[in-house]
Design goal:
Elements (H helix, E strand, L loop, with lengths): L5 H8 L10 H4 L8 H20 L2 H21 L3 H19 L4 H39 L1
Helix pairs in contact: 4-5, 4-6, 5-6
């Protein structure tokens, strides 16, 4: 009997809406949220990286850091485009992460980094070519 009063009539006419979540545009975030499987994979990879860092002694970790910095600076000096620098730095971090998961990070990092840096540089060149070719195709249309 208690539910048939004014309160339940109000709820039928005006159902309570769930709280509004801000849109991705308002937050400037990606639309997709990580699923449980992504969180599990990330947690597993993070745990593996922590264990790999713990396996390295202080001398190996220091040599690895110096190697990474030396190869990264050498590659950045070879590439004049600052937009490509961000891609190369990201690839260096990913190569460092992956090589730390192996038993021989000092041996695997240079090869992984070289492959990833070349791929990032080529990707930036392709994107640049597409951009400039698109501008060349648009220029005659505007003049006409």
């Amino acid at each position: 009997m208690h539910g048939t009063g004014l309160h339940s009539a109000f709820a039928l006419r005006f159902p309570l809406l769930p709280p509004r979540r801000p849109s991705s545009r308002e937050l400037n975030l990606a639309v997709a949220r990580p699923t449980r499987s992504h969180v599990k994979v990330w947690a597993f990879c993070n745990m593996q990286a922590i264990e790999a860092k713990a396996r390295m002694d202080n001398g190996t970790a220091t040599r690895f850091g110096v190697l990474k910095q030396r190869l990264l600076l050498q590659r950045l000096n070879e590439v004049p485009d600052s937009a490509t620098h961000a891609l190369i730095i990201r690839q260096a971090n990913e190569a460092a992460f992956l090589s730390c998961l192996t038993l021989y990070p000092l041996l695997t990092f240079p090869c992984l980094f070289e492959e990833r840096a070349v791929a990032a540089t080529e990707q930036a060149r392709r994107q640049g070519r597409l951009y400039w070719n698109g501008l060349e195709l648009q220029a005659p249309v505007r003049a006409a």
